[in-house]
């Protein structure tokens, strides 16, 4: 067997990320864009000692759960790798992913996944790279879209599947401006050019924020006029200057070009101002459902002292403050903490304290301060630092509610906590990233009685 060889196969099952699985030469073969039960012609794309990667070239027998032709799904899979799968099947893939990843000695309850009422057009944030192509008539054109799987080739966006109509229209106006005014598009290989990417964020209040990412300062006054002429929803326009040859899109250099420095979000009845560098969950409706599930697991009580680790702009911290005695939010991004402190004032919440710094360092300062009854973790995909978990374990905090967008790292961290006296009680998956194989989870752990501090 060699690269680019073609085989006719029957897909036996889905893997954890929704890839088709079959066997050839006693090896497991993962197949992109193929579904359980389908017969397909596949092409080998990479060969490893125990497994092989391939892609579907032709579907000979189609699954009844396929909702998009192969050609269309190949085009869109860089943005949405489960775009071809019907929603019920997608939910089953995600529930299995959680079940097969969180395998622990605790006999925990796995709850049904929290479904989305709207699996399309839900994203309130897009990061869109711009590039240049030479068309058949040798004419340069500016394209924007998303990166094809495992590559930096831009697939132009033809219709908006995950984002909203206004963001799509804003992107189109920016593209027209770049062509009309001959702005040099950044080239990753040569590290030359000016215009890199656009970030657009929007909120339930229909406030839009646009961030233009460039390598150098540039006069965008004409573009700003064009955007404001068309979109009354745009409340804030920033320039972000990133001259580095890097995969990290945004630098720390944000310059406000128009409007207000923040846009306003509302989560579970509270108002939140958001800077461009502050984290905000990408699916507003599902975020509210996720938080409600986390609060149910937490069993909040008026005498509790709580830590909200990795708190972002304070959306969990402030939403639970009214139910408990005191809550400490810890977050590493200074702008997010600036938002959090202001959000505390806007919502008139006195019993929350925000701490700026790394959780692994800052939590140590709370060790001997007062007894903590409950801690929320909501780390980035890489999970919690071991040092942070060690401190939580040493504090003997009776209850942990762990929210995660990285199931593998959550499983790793839960295992460490279990080895140190915690018992996993329940896990609820939440479909925050519909049409992609990513899954959010919320898990609840309790410290066993033998490990609890004697009163
Ligand atoms: C998944 S977000 C969760 C934010 C918030 N809980 C929410 O629901 O909007 C993770 C947050 O952790 C922050 N972060 C990353 N590493 C950190 C660290 N070592 N210490 C503290 N915060 C960190 C990020 O800036 C980000 O705001």
How would you sum up this structure, described in words?
With 455 residues, the chain is of the alpha/beta class. Helices cover 24% and strands 31% of the residues. The chain has helices spanning 70-76, 87-101, 165-180, 221-230, 284-298, 315-321, 334-346, 359-362, 386-395, 407-419, and strands spanning 6-10, 13-14, 20-24, 27-32, 39-47, 51-61, 109-110, 125-134, 140-147, 154-156, 195-202, 208-214, 234-241, 254-259, 263-267, 270-274, 305-309, 326-331, 352-356, 374-377, 399-404, 422-430, 440-447. An eight-stranded mixed β-sheet has the order 7-22-23-21-20-17-18-19, with helices on both faces. Helix 4 (221-230) links the parallel strand 12 (208-214) and strand 13 (234-241). Helix 3 (165-180) packs antiparallel against helix 4. The longest helix is centred in the middle third of the chain and has 16 residues, at 165-180. It is globular, with a radius of gyration of 24 Å. The mean pLDDT is 95. The chain binds S-adenosylmethionine. S-adenosylmethionine is lined by residues 279, 281, 310-312, 315-316, 330-333, 336, 358-360, 378-380, 405.
Task: Please sum up the structure shown.
By secondary structure, the protein is of the alpha/beta class. The chain is 24% helix and 31% strand. The strands form four sheets. The protein has an eight-stranded mixed β-sheet, with helices on both faces. A seven-stranded mixed β-sheet has the order 10-9-8-11-12-13-14, covered by helices on one side. Strands 1-5-6-4-3-2 form a six-stranded mixed β-sheet, with no helix packed on it.
């Amino acid at each position: 067997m060699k690269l680019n060889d073609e085989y006719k196969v029957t897909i036996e099952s889905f893997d954890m990320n929704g890839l088709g699985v079959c066997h050839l030469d006693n090896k497991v073969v993962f197949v992109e864009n193929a579904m359980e039960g389908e017969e397909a012609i596949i092409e080998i794309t990479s060969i490893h000692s125990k497994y092989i990667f391939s892609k579907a070239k032709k579907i000979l027998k189609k699954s009844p759960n396929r909702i998009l032709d192969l050609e269309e799904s190949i085009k869109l899979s860089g943005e949405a790798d489960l775009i071809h799968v019907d929603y019920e099947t997608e939910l089953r893939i995600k529930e299995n992913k959680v079940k097969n990843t969180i395998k622990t000695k605790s006999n925990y309850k796995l709850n049904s996944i929290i479904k989305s009422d709207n699996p399309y057009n839900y994203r309130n944030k897009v990061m869109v790279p711009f590039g240049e192509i030479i068309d058949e008539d040798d004419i340069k054109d500016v394209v924007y879209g998303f990166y094809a799987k495992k590559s930096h080739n831009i697939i132009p966006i033809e219709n908006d599947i995950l984002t909203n109509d206004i963001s799509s229209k804003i992107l189109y106006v920016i593209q027209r401006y770049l062509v009309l005014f001959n702005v040099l598009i950044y080239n990753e290989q040569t590290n030359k050019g000016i215009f890199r990417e656009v970030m657009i964020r929007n909120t339930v209040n229909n406030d839009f924020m646009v961030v233009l990412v460039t390598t150098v300062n540039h006069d965008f006054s004409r573009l700003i006029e064009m955007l404001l002429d068309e979109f009354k929803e745009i409340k804030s326009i920033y320039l972000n200057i990133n001259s580095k040859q890097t995969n990290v899109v945004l630098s720390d250099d944000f310059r406000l070009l128009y409007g207000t420095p923040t846009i306003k979000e509302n989560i579970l009845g509270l108002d939140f101002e958001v800077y461009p560098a502050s984290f905000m969950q990408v699916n507003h409706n599902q975020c509210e459902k996720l938080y409600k599930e986390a609060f149910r697991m937490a069993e909040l009580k008026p005498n509790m002292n709580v830590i909200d680790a990795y708190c972002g702009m304070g959306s969990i911290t402030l939403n639970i403050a009214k139910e408990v005695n005191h809550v400490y939010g810890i977050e590493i991004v200074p702008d997010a903490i600036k938002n959090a402190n202001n959000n505390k004032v806007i919502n008139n919440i006195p019993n929350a304290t925000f701490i700026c710094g790394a959780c692994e360092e800052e939590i140590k300062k709370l060790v001997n301060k007062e007894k903590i009854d409950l801690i929320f973790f909501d780390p980035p995909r890489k999970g919690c630092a071991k040092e942070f978990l060690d401190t939580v374990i040493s504090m003997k905090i009776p209850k942990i509610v762990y929210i995660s967008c990285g199931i593998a790292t959550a499983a790793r961290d839960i295992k460490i906590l279990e080895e140190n006296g915690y018992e996993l009680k329940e896990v609820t998956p939440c479909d925050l990233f519909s049409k992609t194989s990513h899954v959010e989870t919320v898990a609840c752990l309790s410290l066993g009685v033998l490990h609890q501090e004697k009163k």
